[in-house]
Amino acid sequence: MIPRYSRPQMASIWAPETRFRIWFEIEAHAAAAMAEIGTIPKEAAAIIWEKGSKATFDVARIDEIEAETKHDVIAFLTHLAEIVGPEARFVHQGLTSSDVLDTCLAVQLVRAADLLIADIDNVLAALRKRAFEHKTTPTIGRSHGIHAEPTTFGVKLAHAYAEFARSRARMVAARKEVATCALSGAVGTFANIDPRVEVYVAEKMGLVPEPVSTQVIPRDRHAMYFATLGVIASSVERLATEIRHLQRTEVLEAEEFFSAGQKGSSAMPHKRNPVLSENLTGLARMVRAYALPAMENVALWHERDISHSSVERMIGPDATVTLDFALARLTGIIEKLVIYPDAMQRNLDKLGGLHNSQRVLLALTQAGVSREDAYRLVQRNAMKTWSEGKDFLTELKADKEVTAKVPATELEELFDLGYHFKSVDTIFERVFGKA
User: What is the per-residue DSSP string for 157-199?
Assistant: First the structure.
């Protein structure tokens, strides 16, 4: 997590001050629950909450204690005792460190998920606006990077919208899966803590009780969460890569907004590079990289070990902060994307109408020509266009074998650009719903 790719709201979730505040809330709510069922004095629970809620936890002091104890939770509890006083002896009754750590991590991941869902909503809003703006803007569709058949730029953006709508649903599901609380004590048997305490704390922290924990919350939940972040990052990269291709000089159908005073190259003053999209490609690689160690964390020894701990201290903040930044940057790119409809039309026309080859092929088969012969007839005329720059329709009209089956006037009708867009409304209705 570095400042260059961090936004304050997401970064604050992972700040030590936030972590210690969550730890305190878990401990204080647990004390309140114990007081309700009579295992600690109610007066003690009230003092714990009153003094702790007003305190500013001293990160440097906690670090100082940890340097001696070599245990972060004990260091925090020691500092909390300095704040609370004698009643602190009722803090952490029957709990183990993982109860606090895992429940805190769940809270942090839920809060991060909420920000990421909001980020995706912003991406969706930007995509929707630009998709409708260019719903009927013709452009060439490409397969293998080669001209295929016409589409519209709006349909391209609708595709991205549908993809990020799926991302949103996955993020919502991942949030739900990771939002569990475990306050079950050593090896998860509730030997020294009443299960009702877990239920109480879970409700207060916006979580649900983990059905069965060993001493830790099962890490398959976290693996799914980070895998979801990786899939979303891949969708970010897919759209960023599309923009990078469209900005190539030979294509130049769309490009990132180039602001006044911006410089593209230290050596070449003319350069306008897709630096933001390239940056997103790199950030996506990092987010995906965090998914594998999360999956490897699933296989812990017996009831617990701490091989997952160091991993999560890094991937928790880094993956969420990086994806948050990437989604915000992607929203800005989409909102300000400069689109060139004239260039799209020029590129569409560049191959002399070859994008209509399938229509001609189908017309010949409908006229009684075998598919193999129809393909041969269309391809031999298409290759003249491809290799010699001939006009495809002109070549077809001059081919007597073709016109014997499909007259010239019917061939001309097959070159109607609007034909390719007759189902655009249907696509938009499927993606965005009825207007």
Answer: HHHHHHHHHHHHHHHHHHHHHH-EE----GGGS-TTS-HHHHH
Pairwise CA distance, residues 103 & 185, whole Å? 12
Angstrom distance (rounded) from CA 287 to CA 374: 49
Q: What single string gives the DSSP state of each residue in 90-125? A: GTTTT--HHHHHHHHHHHHHHHHHHHHHHHHHHHHH
- Residues 316/266, Cβ–Cβ less than 8 Å: no
d(CA 356, CA 83): 78
| Other CB atoms within 10 Å distance of the CB of residue 27 | 28
- In 3D space, the residue among 279, 292, 334 whose CA is nearest the CA of residue 134 turns out to be 334
Identify whether 213 is a catalytic site residue: no
pLDDT per residue rounded down to tens, the chain (435 residues): 689 999 999 999 999 999 999 999 999 999 999 999 999 999 999 999 999 999 999 999 999 999 999 999 999 999 999 999 999 999 999 999 999 999 999 999 999 999 999 999 999 999 999 999 999 999 999 999 999 999 999 999 999 999 999 999 999 999 999 999 999 999 999 999 999 999 999 999 999 999 999 989 999 999 999 999 999 999 999 999 999 999 999 999 999 998 888 888 788 888 899 999 999 999 999 999 999 999 999 999 998 888 898 888 899 999 999 999 999 999 999 999 999 999 999 999 999 999 999 999 999 999 999 999 999 999 999 999 989 989 999 999 999 999 999 999 999 999 999 999 999 999 999 999 987
Catalytic-labelled residue, pool 53, 265, 310, 370: 265
- CB of 101 within 8 A of CB of 45? no
Distance CA 264, CA 266 (A): 7
Cα–Cα distances in angstroms (integers) from residue 38 to residues 32, 33, 188, in the given order: 10, 9, 22
What is the rounded distance in angstroms from the CA atom of residue 264 to the CA atom of residue 244? 14
Please report the beta strands in 242-333, taking only residues with DSSP state E, as ranges in sequence order. Answer: 254-255
Estimate the share of the chain in helix, then strand, then coil, as percent rounded to the nearest 5.
70, 5, 25
pTM (global) more than 0.85: yes
At 64, which amino acid appears? E
Is residue 307 annotated as part of the catalytic site, yes or no?
no
Both structure tokens of 110 = 């839920």
CA distance 418 to 403: 23
Strand partners, 139: 151
Contact assessment for residue 241 and residue 319, using Cβ atoms and an 8 Å cutoff: no
